[in-house]
Structure formats: C-alpha cells, structure tokens
Amino acid sequence: MAGSIIGLEIAEESIRAVEVRLGRHPTLIAAGEVLLPSGAARDSDVLDAEAVALACTQLWAQSKFKRRKVVLSVANRRLLVREYSAPNLPREELRAALPYEVQDLLPVPVERAVLDFYPISIEGNQAKGLLVAGAAEGIEGLIAALRKAKLWVSAVDFLPFGLARAVGIALPPGSGPVAVAAIGEHTTSYVVVEDGVPRYVRIIPAEVLVGLHATMAARGEFGSSGLASTARRGVLEVEPVPDASLTELVSRIRETLEFSRRSGGVSPRKLLITGSLGLVPEIHEALRKALDIEVDTLSPTDVIATSAALAAEGLPASLMGALGVTLEVK
Predict the structure, then answer these.
(1) 162-189: per-residue pLDDT in tens?
(2) Cβ distance 298 to 273 under 8 Å?
(3) Percentage above 70 pLDDT, the chain
(4) Nearest-angstrom CA–CA distance, 16 and 32
(5) Would strands 14-21 and 4-10 be described as parallel, antiparallel, or unpaired?
C-alpha cells in the first residue's frame, strides 16, 4: 500500500497543508487551510506559538490528515539566496563540508545557520548551484510550535525549490524557461525554472495588505469537506488592492524579471503567478499589462491529480507552497 506525505506552510494569514498519496501516480488526497489571528506568524516565523499550535490542531481535525509528520515549506526575506560554486562531492560529504566553505558569506555565525545547496551544473571539480542559508533560530521556532500540536517535522524545504518541481511536473520537458511568482502579503517568492530545475531565485519584499485580508475573509476556512460554513464571515466583497501597493508589487516583479534575464542567463517565456494573491484579478491584469511576456496562473490542479473527494473543490492557489515540497520531478 502506497504511503503519503504532508507538506505544510505557515504564512502570516493562514496555515496551509496538503497530503499526497505516493506511488506511480501521486494523488492529492487531503488539503486544508485555517486562518491565523493577526500577529501569530509572519513569513515562516512564529510569533505566537500557542495560536499557531491551535490552528494546526484545527487544521488536522477538519482536513482529516492521516499522518502527523510533515515536510515544512519555508521562505522569507531573511533567507540568503545566491549563486554559489561548491566542491563536487557526494551529497553527505558536501553537507559536512558546506559550513566551512560558506561561513564568511553568512549573516549569522555558521553554528547558528541552516544551510542548503541545490546543484544545477557540474564543471570539472566544481558544482554550480544555489546556496540557501538562514538562521537556525527561526526554523527551531517553527518546529517547536508544531510540536505543541503533536506534529513532527521530517524535513525542511525551500518554497521556491518546491515551486520549481511543481512546474517541472505541470509542463512537458523542453518547454523552455518559465518564471513563477508566489505572491504573498509581505513577500513574493520568484523562481525561474527550466525542466524542473531552479535557475534563478529571489525573495522579493513587497507589501500587499488590504486586498489579501478581504480575499481570505471572503473565502473563509477551507478544508477537505469543502468551505466550512462556520468560518464564513458573511458576504464580503474583495476590496481592491491599493494603487500604491499594486504599483510597488508590479515594479518589483518587473525589475526582478529583467535582472534574472541579465544575471541568470535565462529568458523566461511566461510568468506563472500563484500563492495567496495569485488569483486576484487586478494583480493578474496589472502584471499582464506591465510585462513583455505571457502571464498565467498556477494552481494545484495544474500539477497533480486529486481524489474524488477533492475533485469538486476549488483548491486555492495558496496551497502551492505546501504542495511543492511534497513533489518529485519524474
């Protein structure tokens, strides 16, 4: 019998999780999202462990997840992401050597850092790829909050790497480079993907506040049994994203696209938008007008088959961060 894997993301506005049944044909079998009270978390940082633990308990109860081990998806602007060349060593040897190789680049002492390296190409005795580094304290805070809800973290993964795997599955090989932007309330995770491999990654700071809260409130809590009627807050219209906020977001994404073309050596043929704000029409339209490439959306159903119980539900794009870390490119 095939096992399953659960991916989980803690953002400012909500906690999202998905469960994928493994096997020759992976299937999304459970999914859910629970809103967090204001100030409980912010971009993969826990500020109120008790509130986060309570929300996780509610999420597991309403979504009927079968496991309590999770893969944690993280992304925030304090993570260092940069191109890096490391010795071409077996993975375990590289993992042991990496702290000594990169200690002069880190914003915190190496003993207080969490490191990851994604190799992209091999040139002689060097592996070229992407280095990700962050403070261990933030990751430990996430893990501690989840333990309060009797959840255990089996692995921590970088959200843009999960998005790259999702695109590698959604698009056929040879489709060419594609950019993906997971747009959130305070940060946007941007990655250029080619055949499932992340070629360029940036975490873009961009504040988009009013529209998101209204969208989340209008949608209510989402769970495997559908939109929970007890979570709805009446009939709310989505407030427009403030002009200044929208302009700033579009400008930063446009600048990042241009910079990735110059420094990353790849020119995306389209931009796929996803995340909490990925389906907000005015953001989609503003990006379409501002960019010189095609703009489309990326949702869970573009990437993976769903169980009969979930087939009728409109799975929100906000689940992509949790889904990506459960996936493997074939």
Answers:
(1) 999 999 999 988 889 999 999 988 889 9
(2) yes
(3) 88
(4) 6
(5) antiparallel
Residues 6 or more apart whose Cβ sits within 8 Å of residue 146: 8, 52, 53, 56, 70, 72, 152, 153
String of DSSP letters for 22-83? -SSS-EEEEEEEEE--TTSB-SS-BS-HHHHHHHHHHHHHHHT-S-SEEEEEE--TTSEEEE
Cα-flanking dihedrals φ and ψ of residue 59, to 5°?
A: -65, -45
Reported as half-sphere exposure (CB side, CA atoms, 13 A), residue 36 has a value of: 25
Phi-psi region of 142 (alpha: psi -120 to 50; beta: other; left: phi over 0): alpha
Contact present, 275 and 181 (Cβ < 8 Å): yes
For residue 261, count other CB atoms closer than 10 A to its CB: 16
Write down all domains in the chain, each with its CATH number in brackets: 4-324 (3.30.420.380)
How far apart, in whole angstroms, are the C-alpha atoms of residue 191 and residue 214?
A: 27
Residue type, 38: S
The two beta strands, 4-10 and 113-123, are unpaired
- Written as one string, the DSSP assignment of 278-294 is TT-HHHHHHHHHH-SSE
Contact predicate 266/190, CB 8 Å: no
